[in-house]
Amino acid sequence: MQYSVVDATDRGHARSDDRSIAGAGIGLRHCHLEQVLRERPPVPWLELLADNHLAAGGLEHAGLEAISVRYPLTLHCVGMNLAGCDPLDHKYLRQIIQLRERTGAAWVSDHLCFTAHNRRHYHELLPFPYTEEALRHVSERVLAVQDLLQAPLVVENVSAYLRFADSSLSEAEFLAALTHATDCELLLDLNNLYVNHVNHGDDVDAYLAALPLARVREVHLAGHAVKPGYLLDAHNDRVSPPVWALFRRLVQALPEVPVLIEWDNDIPALPVLLAEAERARTERATALAARTSAAGVAADGRTQTAESVSPC
């Protein structure tokens, strides 16, 4: 099943306000909050893990408000349970909306997964079968969330450690259909894509060809752990060389897409994160320079060919 980008973008839904979100940002974790406030590192934007900041009041909220004055922000969630069968948690969603209003976050994102069932929260991003029935179910829930947000939701692909025989769509086809049905936007996690490629043999070319790249609002880069026989999306290390290669490839198609460095476990000193963000900036510049050079060579070749056959 394929849907064109024209179908997805002509429905009239307002796009996320991304004018202030550009370049390579980092995920802001609690251990770095005071240091960022004190030192004001030259990072262009920050992403908050929203679920860590939902408690009312306190010094941390004052710190976040100060951060929001100095840096453009986005919110990244792990609790919407978009593919779950429990009713949407409206209290949780109201808290997310209040946090967005306090921080002026440009957009809100969450994952294509379920995280709870029968009111039991698993604190994991769990996969589900990619079927037409699931597509209708998830679409209804995304539309409901967007009605509350009054903005497009940004939906992220996940790493998965099992596959369902009942799936009739690939993840990329499912995401493409979801954008068509709901006008949602996409967060493309390249580490998740690479982990699934290694663990399941997913075809990266086919994935990117099926995905409506015009709907990609943000890219995540992260590290993974090498386990016996598989990769684990652990967010505990620097971005790996194959994921950097994927990023260089992606920016050929999306030269200005905002990119974020995620690091959630074994969190390093802030300068390490800033160095990864700087590398993302450098990798993008290198890839775009190579593209420009290749285009120049191709144009020169066409000119020489034309001259060689000219009757003059």
UniProtKB/TrEMBL annotation:
<dbReference type="Pfam" id="PF05114">
    <property type="entry name" value="MbnB_TglH_ChrH"/>
</dbReference>
<protein>
    <submittedName>
        <fullName>Uncharacterized protein</fullName>
    </submittedName>
</protein>
<dbReference type="InterPro" id="IPR007801">
    <property type="entry name" value="MbnB/TglH/ChrH"/>
</dbReference>
<dbReference type="InterPro" id="IPR036237">
    <property type="entry name" value="Xyl_isomerase-like_sf"/>
</dbReference>
